[in-house]
Give the backbone structure.
Amino acid sequence: MNWLSLLGSMEGAVAQGLFYAVFALGVYITYKILDVADLTVDGSIVTGGAVAAVCIANGMNAVLAVFLAFLAGLVAGAITGFFHLTLGIPAILAGILTQLSLFSINLSIMGGPNAKVSSREYDVIVKLSNNTQSMIVGLVFVVVAIAFLYWFFGTEFGSSLRATGANPNMSRAQGINTNFTTLFGLMLSNGFVAMAGGLFAQYNGNSDINFGRGAIVIGLASVIIGSVLCDALFKKGANFAVKLAFVVVGAIIYQMVTALIIQVGLPTDYLKLFSALLVALFLAMPYLKGKYFSHVKGKGGNGHA
């Protein structure tokens, strides 16, 4: 193994991990807070990249382009919300329908299967050739995102959104418009996802129609890895900001492990399989841990008897 090559790949993995952390924070909103399975993200991350790439190619400031990508994500989430809340389509199917629709929309935005935004031609804020700058910018976006979410979910409306995910029936009984809070949650989630897409388009030098394929797995892996580590380290429960921070840690760990596997020679064709197995492992850990310890406790109790 070439250790210098490994070190360089880890630097890139951290940068990409920070971009995926923004994506994972969006997934966290639907998966952990709203308790909604939203598959829109596989399409909205490409929408964000497409919007940002086209805007930058037409002379727009790169930061403003990422903001417009965020707005495009809000629209994508609203479409899913319309399918789910107005037409009564189950959330998971509504997300699939939106994702399918976005494939055609993304092609239209880019004018083809991809849109180039090379750092050699355009003034971008993150780029593959400068991972140090990319890490700094990624960290800024992550810190701002966590600060915003921590503030927002501490407001009355943010608390209503959390209550909707925890117990929608009780929330409705308390006068909360759960349809509106769910809609807003879907929009906010996909806004962050599309923002990540805008960063990735600049980092990779292009936005590709197939980039988002299977992205939900990476987002879930980041959320689950972070949640498992947070629960293991904070037995009595962690502050909400700490939970969000561990989502970032989970995203970085996932990317670093992926980079390590590539460096040891695993064919990239197996990366999706690895992703699925890693998510399955971390999803199963709480169950397996509970089953194991309950078994040990049971044996201990019998021994004392």
In short: The two ends are 55 Å apart (CA to CA). Residues 3-211 form one domain. The longest strand covers residues 114-116. DSSP finds eleven helices and two strands in the chain.
